[in-house]
Amino acid sequence: MTEIPVHYVMLRAFSYTTESNEKVKKALKLFLPPETKVEFQELEGNFGNKIILFRSKIEKSREIRDLIHKIKTSLTENQIKELERQIEKRTDEDCNLFLRFNKQDAYKEKLSLTNSGNSINIRFKIAAYPAKKQKAINTGKQLFQKDWS
């Protein structure tokens, strides 16, 4: 089994006043192993409105592999190719790869990439040596091309 080049994955989603907290939590859990704990934090919006931040972290290699497999098998071939084309824009100088999935679709157990802010945010901490953006971009592209099972 090849070692997965990801240190950990952080996932988060915001639940706004007009949304059901349970539905947002359910949408986030679609990306998580069944027994993974979801933490929450109450925040206050610009107008004093209550916002709940749900977040979780995946650190085990097997669980990271399962998440990548779920993404690869749920997106169409064209969506995977588009994702690979956008890897450079989605990767920062600290070797983080950011993906956003539509929160409404995730609640319906469907994965679809989005650029909208109303989303499930997933951050992959890429294991790039040396820790340079270009190395992380190359590694990020491999995540969705290679079979990690």
TrEMBL record:
Q: Which Gene3D superfamilies match?
A: 3.30.1440.10
So which domain of life are we looking at?
Answer: Archaea
Looking up InterPro entries in the UniProt record yields: PAB1135-like (IPR002739), Ribosomal_uL5_dom_sf (IPR022803)
* Alphabetical list of NCBIfam families matching this protein: PRK14555.1-1
Know the name of this protein? Answer: Exosome subunit RNA binding protein with dsRBD fold
What organism is the protein native to? Methanonatronarchaeum thermophilum
